[in-house]
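Sat 14:20. Reprocessing the chain from the morning session after the first attempt stalled halfway. Input below, unchanged.
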Amino acid sequence: MQNFDFSPLYRSAIGYDRLAHMMDEALRNDAQPSYPPYNIELLGDDQYRISMAVAGFDRSELDIEIERDTLKVVGRKQRADAKPTFLHRGIATRDFEHRFRLADHVKVVSAGLENGLLNIELVREIPEVLKPRKIAIDGDNVHMLERKVA
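Finished this time. C-alpha cells:
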C-alpha cells in the first residue's frame, strides 16, 4: 500500500484538512465491519436510503445517532436470563456498531424498522446561498436569475 503525504495540501489550502483526513482514513487498511449486512441506495438526485438487515433486534435495542458528519447505528442485544439450547444457530444476534460518513448538508429524514430491515432515509439539502447563481451584468443588485441544473 502506498502512503501519501498531504503536507503540501495543508500548506497551501485553508479548511481542506477534513478532506485530507477523510482520504487518509480511506487509505488505511482497517476493514469496515460487515455485520450486519447493509445496502446504500440512491433514490433520487439528492435522496438516499441505508437498509440494514437487523433480524432478531427489537426497536428498543437499536440506536441511531448523528454527531457532526458521522451517522452511527448501534445494536445492543438484551441478554436473556435463560440461555436457549440451539440445534442449529444461523441467525447472528451479536452487538454491532456501524459508522457512516455523511457529506456536507446530508440530513437524516426518517428511520423505520420493517420486516427485519432498518431503513434510514437521508436527503441532501443544499442551502439557497450555496446554490449556483447567475449574475446579471450591469444589474443594480444581485439576485438569482436561474439555477444551474447539475
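The longest helix spans residues 17-27.
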